[in-house]
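Kindly go through one protein, given below as sequence and tokens. The question is how this chain folds according to its tokens.

***
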Amino acid sequence: MNPKPKKSLWQKLIRSLGRICFVVLLLLFILWVALAQPSCRRNPRSNASVDPEVLRAHVDMLAVTFRPRDWIHPENLDATANYISEKLSETGARISTQPVQTGNLTSRNVIGSFNAGHSPRIIVGAHYDAFQVFPAADDNASGIAVLIELAALLGKMENPPPVDLVAYTYEEPPHFAGPQMGSAVHANSLEGSEEDYLGVIVLEMVGYYSDEAFSQSYPMPMLYMMYPHRGNYLAVISRWDQGDWIKNVKVAMKSRSDMPVYSLRAPDRVPGIDFSDHRNYWPLNIPALMVTDTSFYRNRHYHSKEDLPESLDYPRMAQVTLSVFEAVKELGKP
């Protein structure tokens, strides 16, 4: 009997490399599933509609008429709060306010509630202040515009879900991450409440999109293997332990409109994971996330004089509004 021919060193090397590649790909797949929480679910498309020009009018009002709306221009913050209150009131929302003080200056959160007295409630929030004297169209006039038009859609419902729409003051520096953030004041006001809260959705920069190749960046190059390189999608983002809420919101938003929706759950040490108002609800164990265009990972005009109304994509913002509306409707069902 002839002995089996010995495998060459080259053959052994090829087999070893194949095994290593398989293990690496398997680990990347497991990591992708853990971070992105993929779903094959398809939802019916929304039959509602939002006028992009109305969204543009809201952004113009905040980014042009009320500019600058930073904390040292309280008269403009007050005018902005009045505008938001008036627009939310027109939709039939029940309006309330919360004073927020920094030094000898006082601003306020504006809250528009639907189906008051019923729970569990969903909170949808967006901050209306701006960084320094910049126009801040994307950051965050875009979030407020979507919040107002979300209220308009909810107001047309015969029996809207239990929702509180909150426009926050003092999100930007020097108040960010401190107790004077409007969202911190709102979150703390819920402690000991008799109401139950299903979760929080914060609208943080939702107006900037690009179909150019590699217009989207990421905190880690590895994420290019898991997410698109074109900045033409909406992201649902939060901390690692918020995974259930992230997936529920993402899945409820999917295919409701033409806007693609991706999600990311990651440790809060990843830059950007906690860069908005949702962070203030975590200590109360209220699930919270942000819906975003990914901010400075896409929009090069972040915190600059170039963050202007004409840089935003209002048809896509309308799609964002529909996606959030349908998600709130589904998640808020009894």
Observations:
- The chain has seven helices and eight strands.
- The chain has a mean pLDDT of 95.
- The first strand starts at residue 94 and ends at 102.
- The chain has one domain: 43-331.
